[in-house]
């Protein structure tokens, strides 16, 4: 995978490309359709498939603090794009100057001069240039002028829903991670570093958890408890001296079943939202490790219990449900789920 940060890093000897353009937050099933079509055309033409994406999010330039929560960080978007056949990524620093380009300037500078595009693949809702003045008709007209093939893909609809990043966020806000996963075509995940929490999970309750540090910009499901998977994503060795593996060693890159708590802890009066993962049948010192938590299905909302005994009973039930749900994880991901209660 070639990564070019800005137009100046595009190789001067690039002899052609097939280009797809967008923020691609989440790389959902609709985005995947665009990328696969661009990759198919690139193979036929014998040129690289290039994804053009923007960082920061365009909305943050014009409405600071109003940008949507992030479904996937840039590095993960790139990884997901590679899985769809994208061979190079051009990361554009979105600025007011870029936004001020006319559609004609935008097309010439980026698509023709820099990427020497033979073809462009975009969705039917794609706009470009000043105030989004460039439309599907503009794109086709400019393509004809510069001898660039233009493919406009219809938006992906399934189960009477338009698959888009906004839809995924709406499902997450509802806590309906099963439907979010269906729209994404994979399990929704968050990535972060394990940091020290209150410490009561292992010492007081017997359920040691890995507490993730996550930026506020990351999209989280609604407060509640979820069944999911836990993966160590770095290669740093786990400290065996202070780790107690109940059922063998934890290995980076391996997915482990986990019960995940998202939100505040009302039973103990905690007010800060957090993500805590209890990895089933494993216990290891993970502080400082970078990990990924994937969400499979929601078990229950966050509840304020009347005492520790009631909480422990609920947590034991969470573990039992997690095992049952993860046993049919593939089935949940493949089938269009019904709306959550």
UniProtKB/TrEMBL annotation:
Domain Riboflavin kinase positions: 183-327
Keywords, alphabetical: ATP-binding, FAD, Flavoprotein, FMN, Kinase, Multifunctional enzyme, Nucleotide-binding, Nucleotidyltransferase, Transferase
Biological processes, Gene Ontology terms: FAD biosynthetic process; FMN biosynthetic process; riboflavin biosynthetic process
Domain of life: Bacteria
Pathway: Cofactor biosynthesis; FMN biosynthesis; FMN from riboflavin (ATP route): step 1/1; Cofactor biosynthesis; FAD biosynthesis; FAD from FMN: step 1/1
MF-aspect GO terms: ATP binding; FMN adenylyltransferase activity; riboflavin kinase activity
Swiss-Prot/TrEMBL catalytic activity: riboflavin + ATP = FMN + ADP + H(+); FMN + ATP + H(+) = FAD + diphosphate
Protein name (Swiss-Prot/TrEMBL): Riboflavin biosynthesis protein
PANTHER family registered for this protein in UniProt: RIBOFLAVIN KINASE (PTHR22749:SF6), RIBOFLAVIN KINASE/FMN ADENYLYLTRANSFERASE (PTHR22749)
Similarity section: Belongs to the ribF family.
Function summary: Catalyzes the phosphorylation of riboflavin to FMN followed by the adenylation of FMN to FAD.
Classification via SUPFAM superfamilies: Nucleotidylyl transferase, Riboflavin kinase-like
EC number of this enzyme: 2.7.1.26, 2.7.7.2
Cell inner membrane keyword on record: no
Gene for this chain: ribF
């Amino acid at each position: 995978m070639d990564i070019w940060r800005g137009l100046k890093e595009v190789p001067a000897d690039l002899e052609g490309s097939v280009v797809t353009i967008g923020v691609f937050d989440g790389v959902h099933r609709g985005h995947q359709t665009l990328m696969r079509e661009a990759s198919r055309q690139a193979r036929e033409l014998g040129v690289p498939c290039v994804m053009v994406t923007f960082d920061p999010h365009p909305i943050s330039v014009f409405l600071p603090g109003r940008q949507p929560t992030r479904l996937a960080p840039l590095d993960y978007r790139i990884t997901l794009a590679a899985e769809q056949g994208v061979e190079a990524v051009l990361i554009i620093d979105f600025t007011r100057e870029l936004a001020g380009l006319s559609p004609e300037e935008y097309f010439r500078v980026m698509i023709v001069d820099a990427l020497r595009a033979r073809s462009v693949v975009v969705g039917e809702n794609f706009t470009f240039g000043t105030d989004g003045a460039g439309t599907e008709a503009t794109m086709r007209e400019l393509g004809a002028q510069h001898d660039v093939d233009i493919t406009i893909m219809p938006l992906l609809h399934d189960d009477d829903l338009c698959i888009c990043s906004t839809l995924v966020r709406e499902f997450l806000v509802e806590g309906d991670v099963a439907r979010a996963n269906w729209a994404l075509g994979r399990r929704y995940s968050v990535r972060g570093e394990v940091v020290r929490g209150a410490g009561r999970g292992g010492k007081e309750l017997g359920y040691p958890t890995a507490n993730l540090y996550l930026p506020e910009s990351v999209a989280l499901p609604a407060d509640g408890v979820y069944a999911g998977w836990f993966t160590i994503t770095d290669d740093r060795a786990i400290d065996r001296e202070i780790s107690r593996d109940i059922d063998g060693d934890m290995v980076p890159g391996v997915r482990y079943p986990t019960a995940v708590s998202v939100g505040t802890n009302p039973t103990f009066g905690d007010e800060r939202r957090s993500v805590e993962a209890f990895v089933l049948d494993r216990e290891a010192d993970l502080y400082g490790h970078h990990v990924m938590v994937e969400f499979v299905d929601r078990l229950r909302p966050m509840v304020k219990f009347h005492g520790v005994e009631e909480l422990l009973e609920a947590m034991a039930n969470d573990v039992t449900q997690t095992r049952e749900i993860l046993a049919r994880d593939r089935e949940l991901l493949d089938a269009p789920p019904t709306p959550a209660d």
